[in-house]
Amino acid sequence: MSAAALLADLRAAGFALHPDGDRLIVSPAPKLTPAQREAIREHKPGLLACLWAETLKEHFEERAAILEFDGGIPREEAEAAARASTGLLARNLGLPWAALRLALNDPALPDSPDPVDRPPYGLPAWCLTPDRKPVLQGAFYVHKRSL
């Protein structure tokens, strides 16, 4: 059984699973059978990767949508910036490469439980200012003051 199939089975049985760093929180834990506990132990790295992938995928989709719809950035550019932002988030949180690979469906990324140790897509090109205006990262403007 794969980690994804086990996760689906556990959810169907009424369990909630949440990642907490490299810990896996299952509730209600007292209702786990010995076989379920053993399966969770066996598939823990894969379960964590699946759960963190869900978080990273949500982050990617949200960033891409904000940049595209609020910022008016073309979809392709918005997705590239969102991919870079998601890679940076995975690195900053010390999440496994496997989670980032699953989240972004990118077979070029390592399928490893080791933590992301570099921003795989560079830095995001676009961001939004607090008033929702798109701005290129690293770009700045000098405003002349009237004297």
Automatic annotation (TrEMBL):
<protein>
    <recommendedName>
        <fullName>TubC N-terminal docking domain-containing protein</fullName>
    </recommendedName>
</protein>
<dbReference type="Pfam" id="PF18563">
    <property type="entry name" value="TubC_N"/>
</dbReference>
<feature type="domain" description="TubC N-terminal docking">
    <location>
        <begin position="5"/>
        <end position="51"/>
    </location>
</feature>
<dbReference type="InterPro" id="IPR041464">
    <property type="entry name" value="TubC_N"/>
</dbReference>
<dbReference type="InterPro" id="IPR044894">
    <property type="entry name" value="TubC_N_sf"/>
</dbReference>
